[in-house]
Each structure stands twice: as structure tokens, then as C-alpha cells.
Design brief:
single chain, Beta-Lactamase, 10 strands
């Protein structure tokens, strides 16, 4: 081996020009299946180089083992080493992009939580009743991106991103050793089949397609189980924000010990409140975004001596939740209805992008 060749191999592709030329060769070969020559590189690389200079760079890349020259062509094709370099570069870029997204997403999620907490405090303050707001549900929200990454041997990180840049993650234990090529293949398949679809659109047909097309059926099955868990929106998964719980005890008719104890239990139970808002949302009439329940009309029996007003709010990209106001049956309905009408319009303006 020559000293010159050894030096090039030790240095790797530190030369940006070589990197661009190699990437151009690989991308064009992936698209056409034909060996790539200097004229094609000159056309698609964006480099302002002479054909002679490009050929010299190609010769260096061939000497370094990144490309090969078929006997029947003057063009070059990627070697296994070239493919490996290209895939590793893709994975590194994906991880960097994902890291940036995670950082910005956490900021957005914190802002959304802060907005909901502020909202529920304002409702309680404006109405002088008890206010509650459910965090957004995502049944109609579309899947923007899916990715698995190898955390350690036998363990994957499964990331799911919705439109609105809401992220869910889960670790998945697997039995097989996956190389980066296999991980890239699974990522491409997941995004090809599920990307752009809402949660409610994902049917058994999609699941069968993923299993049938995957070369790693067992791992895909484990990923689909994890996906189902991440997409499940049962009541325990919904965040509930409350404020003004003591406001309703200012009214004499709700202060007797039996009524008070029932209300306290209901207001302290996340499951009770989540169920209350979910049931109210499911009963929403198509032409009404605000519902009023008086006395025994309430979805929750413990609130049969109260009035409940609910409003469905909608954020960008399909996410939605429910606002509720609990008070005595003699509540100021006009004020509550005006407040909720105004707020559900403002909720649609919360920036998520």
C-alpha cells in the first residue's frame, strides 16, 4: 500500500468536495442504477469544477474504496464501503435533526401546558366557579414522523411525532441484533405505511401490510404493540387542569356535608374528571360546541345538584379537548356562555408550529 493511499484512508472524507461528489454518485446510482460519470457529477453536484478535476477526485475516492469502476463503463458505482458511509451520514443527520426537534418540542409542550394552566385559572377567576380543562387529544391528528433508534443491544427507542410537533416515545426490548441498514429499512417502511395518517385511520389492513412487508417480522410485531400503547388515549392518559375547586362551596345549597363530600371526591379524582369531560365531549351535538347540563342531566351522578357547562376546544392540526365549568344550578349562565364562547375561539390561535 502506498504512503499516499494510507494517508487518504486515515483522513477519511475530510474533504467537503469529495463528500459532495460521493453523495452525488450514490444518489444518482440509487435513482438510475447506471454508473455515474463526470458529466453527471458536474450537472448535479453544484460544484464548479472541470471534468479533469472531477475525474481526479473520483480516482481518489476509488483508491479509498468508496466507489468502484465497472469493467464495461467509464462511470463509477458505490462500493459497500461507500453505501455504509452514506447510510451512517443519513443516520447521524437524522439524529441531529431529531435532537433539535426534541429540544424545540419540549419548549412548545411547556408553552401549551402553561397556556392551559393559565386558561383554567382565568375561567375560574372570571366566573367565580370551578373550572377544568382536559389536555388535547389526538385521535384526528396525523402522524408526521416515526423513527426507531438503537439505544443499546436489544433495546430500541421508538419515537412518534404528530402534526403540531407533539412527540411520544417508548423503549422497546427486542430479541434480534439489528444493524443500521435494518433499522433504516424499518424506519422507511413505518413512514411509508403510517406517515400522514391520523390515529383513527390506522386499521388492521395497515398492520398486516407492515408485517407482510417487513423482513424483521418479530421486531415489527413488538413495535406495533408499542405503537398501539402510545396511541391509546384512555382516560388515565389525559391531563386534567383544574382551578377554583373551593369556589362552588360559597353557595349554601352545596355546603351541606353529603353534597360537599361527594363534590370534593369528584374534584380530587383525575379519573372522575377525565371521564366527565370525555362523556360530555362524546355527547356533543354536531351543531353545538357548548353544552349545558343542569342537575341530573350531568354525566356525573355526584354532581346532580350542580350545573355543568362544557365546551370543546380545538387547536391546530386536529387536536382537541374539553373545557368545563361547574357551579350551582343558579349559576350565571349568560356570563359562563359568553366566557367559554370567547375562549374556545382564542384557543384555536395557540401557535403549535
Amino acid at each position: 500500500m502506498s504512503a499516499n493511499k494510507s494517508k487518504k484512508e486515515e483522513g477519511g472524507l475530510v474533504d467537503q468536495r469529495k463528500l459532495i461528489i460521493l453523495t452525488t454518485i450514490i444518489k444518482n446510482y440509487l435513482e438510475t442504477g447506471e454508473p455515474v460519470g463526470s458529466r453527471t457529477i458536474s450537472k448535479y453536484s453544484g460544484l464548479n469544477l472541470s471534468s479533469a478535476t472531477i475525474r481526479n477526485e473520483m480516482s481518489d475516492l476509488e483508491e479509498m474504496g468508496y466507489i468502484l469502476q465497472p469493467h464495461t463503463s467509464a462511470g463509477r458505482v458505490p462500493s459497500d464501503k461507500g453505501y455504509r458511509f452514506y447510510v451512517d451520514q443519513l443516520m447521524e443527520k437524522q439524529e441531529r435533526d431529531l435532537s433539535d426537534v426534541r429540544s424545540s418540542m419540549f419548549d412548545r409542550i411547556e408553552k401549551l401546558e402553561s397556556a392551559l394552566q393559565s386558561l383554567v385559572r382565568n375561567i375560574a377567576s372570571d366566573t367565580h366557579y370551578t373550572a377544568l380543562v382536559s389536555g388535547p387529544r389526538m385521535e384526528k391528528n396525523r402522524i408526521k414522523f416515526l423513527q426507531i433508534s438503537l439505544v443499546e443491544k436489544g433495546k430500541l427507542l421508538f419515537l412518534l411525532m404528530f402534526e403540531g410537533n407533539i412527540i411520544k416515545t417508548m423503549t422497546v426490548d427486542i430479541d434480534e441484533d439489528l444493524e443500521q441498514n435494518a433499522i433504516l429499512s424499518i424506519n422507511l417502511l413505518l413512514n411509508d405505511v403510517l406517515g400522514g395518517h391520523s390515529v383513527e385511520e390506522i386499521t388492521e389492513e395497515y398492520i398486516r401490510t407492515l408485517l407482510d412487508r417487513s423482513r424483521h417480522r418479530k421486531t415489527m410485531g413488538l413495535l406495533l404493540q408499542s405503537l398501539e400503547s402510545m396511541l391509546r388515549t384512555d382516560e388515565q392518559d389525559v391531563e386534567i387542569y383544574t382551578s377554583g375547586a373551593t369556589n362552588i362551596f360559597k353557595y349554601p345549597e352545596l355546603m351541606d356535608s353529603e353534597n360537599a363530600s361527594k363534590l370534593i371526591f369528584a374534584l380530587e379524582s383525575k379519573e372522575e374528571l377525565a371521564g366527565l369531560l370525555q362523556e360530555a365531549e362524546e355527547k356533543e351535538e354536531d351543531n353545538k360546541s357548548i353544552q349545558v347540563y343542569i342537575g341530573k342531566e350531568s354525566p356525573l351522578q355526584d354532581m346532580a345538584d350542580c350545573a355543568l357547562v362544557t365546551a370543546k376546544y380545538r387547536l391546530g392540526n386536529g387536536m382537541h379537548g374539553t373545557i368545563g365549568v361547574i357551579g350551582p344550578k343558579r349559576m350565571d349562565y349568560e356570563k359562563v356562555l359568553d366566557t367559554l364562547s370567547r375562549l374556545i375561539q382564542e384557543m384555536g390561535e395557540i401557535p403549535l408550529q
